[in-house]
Structures are given as structure tokens and as C-alpha cells.
């Protein structure tokens, strides 16, 4: 069913693909063919390279830093080979013929764009009752650990692809939770960098305040290597002006990173109400102590205004930011504004709105009060940043904040939508403040992965990655393996 949504425009151009060493690219493409195009049909990859094109360019990047490692890219990020759809049929012909600057950096470093990954349509901002991982272009992404379970969103295809071994790594994007949640549920590492570390130019936007791309990989070292490639200042994105000054060798020093004597804030109320997740978290705390860290209990509960004001910010910025992107696309697309997107969905309701509507789009189209927007933006930034992460770090004399990232994957339900449970996680603090947030696997509940979140202050990306690498080495929990089958109780 998924492939039926892929129009001819999605398959139109792949001639200029730069490929990985032949053995790696061939193996990755064979695995995609076996598990995504066929087999359990994970629905993680929307379009991928032709094997012959990949083989022909096999040695192109062999001497560069990434040495031809294969990377799958979320389909809201422009690549020159294929249209960039954001999962919507309205953008099926959005073939711009250009690379986003972060993709240009990736290629220059020797990374290979192997294909585009499925996502929650419009990065999960269209409806308040959506099913994460579903798009009209790609259908529903399935979790490799349990194919009837959700892969979370919006970078669902990127998370599932890395877990399934379809590429060395993948690139996702996050506004609030869209890298870290799918990474947690798919049992991989996901890193949301400081907003402004990675260019957002030619990335289909939601919010210039909170959007960022970031790496998703099997381990912290690989995530850091990918961040080394894609990070840096971009004159077209003012938020990245300071990126070059803060860009370091993110992968350097990870092997020897230590937590000895490092005080780490434990966001106890963010552990949630699931006793099995809480037990995993206690095991992670014990591992951190054995590694020399000093966990410090923090009694913190976010102000109720935080989520309310964040939502108001996203509504206002979506209308303006998405409209600007659509208007500027050089492709022959049928929509040039959020209002056009709303009208398109209504005209194609059978394909676009069978499972959920577009109430958030409609709210965003009506969000035009600039004074009100400026007020809620300032307040949400204060509550998450200066009065949130910054205050908690300072008052408790800790370097990082930790909590479980999310609960185990829920059963996908296109009829009723997502059903999160357990009040788990505190990633919205880092998302709203624009600060770095890393999730690293910390174990599994009945075969379903759960991640550990590590958050730090603005531009502490390298230090957060080091903390994650040190925890990764100390971790004692047994990690689950993908089953590529529907969930069943662990024997």
C-alpha cells in the first residue's frame, strides 16, 4: 500500500547519487529491499538509490572523513536527487534539484545520501489526533522491534531505518521530540543539537525558534561523527551565526570521556508512573554511580504555561515559516501557503484525511496576533531556559539533567491515533529552550526499547555527547534486538 502513494515525481531523478563503498551500499540496499520493500514492509524508506548507480559511484568518497558511510535523510530535508515531500501529496512534485546546506556538508565530508525516509506528515503538526509515523506519501512506519507498534514521530522512518540496519546512520529533524522519541522507541541514539548548530535552510519548517536537524545512529560515536559533518554556520540561516565558534570535533575524546565526579541532576517527576520504566531508570542511575557520577535528586515540575505557550508559538511560526518555504520553492507545486495546504487536503480528503484531520493547521492559519505571539514566545523561552534548565543546573550545581526519554512503544492505531502513557520525559524543556538533548538506549520493557535523556545548557553539545558515551560504556542493561514481527511477550 505504501508504494502506491509514491508518484512518478518521487522516482524521477537519481542519476547524480554519490554512493558508499560498494559492499556497504549494496548490503544496505539489499536489506531495504528485503525488509522495507518486501518482508515486513516497515514503511521506513520512501525512495532509495538504484543499486547500479550506487555501485558505479562506490569509491567516490572513500578518502573523505566519512569514507562513504551511507546515510538516509528524512523527507522534509532537500536533496538534489528526489522531491522533498514532508509526507504530503501536495509536495509530491517538490523536486528542487538542490541540496540543503546540511546535505552539502554531508557529501563534502564523504557521506552518501542513500535515500529518503518516511515521517509523520508535515512533521506531525497537522492534527491533534494523528498517528505518528503516518504520511499520505509513505503510509505507516512500523517499529522493527514490534511491527504492530509505533515508531514515534516525526522522524519515524529515520529511527526505524537505523534500527533495521538500512544505513550507517540517518538524519532526523526535531521541533519537540521528533528526533528523541523515535530514537528512544527504536532503540537507537538520537541527538537534538542546540538550535543553530545545524542549518535549517531548505528544510520544510514548523518553527524557526525550535526546529533543528540532528543525527540518529546506533551509538554515540557514530552520532557525533555525523554531527561533525553536518554542523556549521550558514549565512542564509541567522540562527547559525555562532555555530562555527561552537563547532568542535564532536567525536574526538568520546572514547576516554569520564563521568567521575560529575554531578547530574535527576528529574525525578519526569520518570513517570510506569514501574518497569522506573526500574530501568534506577539501573541506569546505578550504572552512572559506578562510572563515578554523582546523581542529584531534583524536585521540579514545569509550569503549566510552558506547554500552552509553546503551542501558541508553534501555531504562529508555522503559518509564516511554512508559507515562506512554499512560496520560495523553485519546483512546480500546487501550494504556496498554509492556506493552500489546507485547501489541498480538503480537495484530496480521501487520501490525506482518512485517518485524521487538520485542526492544528486551521488553528495556525488563524494565529495572526503578533503581540500575543511575542509575549508567549518570551514566556516559554524563560520557563524552559533561564527559569528552567539554566536555573536547575545552577541551583543544584549539576552539569546535566537526566530522565527517561519516553515509555515503550504503543500499539499503532490509525483509527484512534496515538496514545502516550506514563507522563514520562522532560524533553520539551530542551526543545523549547533550544538546548542539546541526547537519548541513549538504557534497556527494554518486554522487548520494547526505552532511552535515557541527557540534557545540557546551550552550546554544550560536545559535553552532552561525552556524557552519553561514558554512560553507554557503563550501561549494564541488556538491549533488545529487532524482531521484525508483531509484538509478543518475552519468554
* CATH-defined architecture of the domain at 2-257 and 404-474: Alpha-Beta Complex
Number of strands: 15
User: Uncertain segments of ≥5 residues (pLDDT<50)?
Assistant: 1-20
The outline comes out as globular
- Average of pLDDT: 94
Q: Give the termini distance in whole angstroms.
A: 33 Å
Biggest pleated-sheet summary:
11 strands, mixed
CATH class category name of the domain at 2-257 and 404-474: Alpha Beta
Question: CATH homologous superfamily name of the domain at 2-257 and 404-474?
Answer: Amidase signature (AS) domain
Gyration radius, in Å? 21 Å
- DSSP summary: helix tally: 15
What strand line-up does the widest sheet have? 1-3-2-8-10-9-14-15-13-11-12
Task: State the helicity in percent bands.
Answer: 25-40%
User: If you consult CATH, what is the topology of the domain at 2-257 and 404-474?
Assistant: Amidase signature (AS) enzymes
Query: What is the beta-strand fraction?
Result: 15-25%
Write down the secondary-structure element order.
HEHEHEEEEEHEHEEHHEHEHHHHHEHEEH
Protein structure class: alpha/beta
Amino acid at each position: 500500500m505504501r508504494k502506491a502513494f509514491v508518484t512518478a515525481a518521487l522516482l524521477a531523478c537519481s542519476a547524480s547519487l554519490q554512493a558508499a563503498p560498494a559492499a556497504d551500499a549494496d548490503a544496505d540496499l539489499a536489506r531495504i529491499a528485503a525488509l522495507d520493500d518486501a518482508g515486513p514492509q516497515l514503511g521506513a524508506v520512501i525512495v532509495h538509490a538504484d543499486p547500479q548507480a550506487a555501485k558505479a559511484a562506490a569509491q567516490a568518497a572513500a578518502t573523505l572523513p566519512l569514507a562513504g558511510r551511507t546515510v538516509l535523510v528524512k523527507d522534509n530535508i532537500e536533496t538534489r536527487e528526489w522531491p522533498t515531500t514532508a509526507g504530503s501529496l501536495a509536495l509530491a512534485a517538490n523536486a528542487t534539484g538542490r541540496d540543503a546546506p546540511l546535505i552539502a556538508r554531508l557529501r563534502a565530508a564523504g557521506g552518501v545520501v542513500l535515500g529518503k525516509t518516511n515521517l509523520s506528515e508535515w512533521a506531525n503538526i497537522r492534527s491533534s489526533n494523528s498517528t505518528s509515523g503516518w504520511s499520505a506519501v509513505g503510509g505507516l512506519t512500523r517499529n522493527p522491534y514490534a511491527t504492530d507498534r509505533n515508531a514515534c514521530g516525526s522522524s519515524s522512518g529515520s529511527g526505524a531505518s537505523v534500527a533495521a540496519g538500512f544505513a550507517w546512520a540517518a538524519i532526523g529533524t526535531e521541533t519537540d521530540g521528533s528526533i528523541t522519541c523515535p530514537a528512544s522507541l527504536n532503540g537507537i541514539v538520537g541527538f537534538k543539537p542546540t538550535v543553530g548548530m545545524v542549518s535549517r535552510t531548505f528544510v520544510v519548517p514548523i518553527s524557526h525558534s525550535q526546529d533543528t536537524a540532528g543525527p540518529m545512529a546506533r551509538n554515540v560515536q557514530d552520532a557525533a561523527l555525523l554531527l561533525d559533518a553536518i554542523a556549521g554556520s550558514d549565512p542564509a540561516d541567522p540562527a547559525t551565526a555562532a555555530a562555527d565558534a561552537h563547532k568542535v570535533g564532536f567525536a574526538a575524546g568520546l572514547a576516554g570521556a569520564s563521568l567521575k565526579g560529575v554531578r547530574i541532576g535527576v528529574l525525578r517527576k519526569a520518570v513517570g508512573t510506569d514501574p518497569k520504566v522506573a526500574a530501568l531508570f534506577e539501573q541506569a542511575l546505578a550504572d552512572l554511580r559506578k562510572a563515578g557520577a554523582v546523581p542529584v535528586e531534583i524536585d521540579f515540575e514545569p509550569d503549566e504555561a510552558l506547554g500552552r505557550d509553546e503551542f501558541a508559538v508553534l501555531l504562529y511560526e508555522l503559518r509564516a515559516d511554512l508559507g515562506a518555504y512554499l512560496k520560495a520553492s523553485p519546483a512546480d507545486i500546487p501550494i504556496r501557503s498554509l492556506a493552500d495546504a489546507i485547501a489541498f487536503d480538503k480537495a484530496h480528503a480521501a487520501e490525506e484525511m482518512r485517518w485524521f484531520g487538520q485542526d492544528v493547521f486551521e488553528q495556525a492559519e488563524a494565529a495572526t496576533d503578533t503581540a500575543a505571539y511575542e509575549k508567549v514566545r518570551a514566556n516559554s523561552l524563560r520557563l524552559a531556559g533561564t527559569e528552567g534548565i539554566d536555573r536547575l543546573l545552577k541551583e543544584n550545581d549539576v552539569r546535566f539533567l537526566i530522565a527517561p526519554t519516553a515509555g515503550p512503544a504503543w500499539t499503532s492505531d490509525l483509527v484512534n491515533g496515538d496514545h502516550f502513557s506514563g507522563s514520562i520525559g522532560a524533553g520539551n524543556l530542551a526543545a523549547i529552550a533550544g538546548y542539546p538533548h541526547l537519548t541513549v538506549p538504557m534497556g527494554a520493557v518486554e522487548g520494547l526499547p526505552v532511552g535515557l535523556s541527557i540534557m545540557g545548557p546551550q552550546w554544550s553539545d560536545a559535553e552532552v555527547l561525552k556524557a552519553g558515551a561514558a554512560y553507554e560504556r557503563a550501561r549494564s542493561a541488556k538491549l533488545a534486538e529487532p524482531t521484525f514481527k508483531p509484538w509478543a511477550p518475552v519468554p
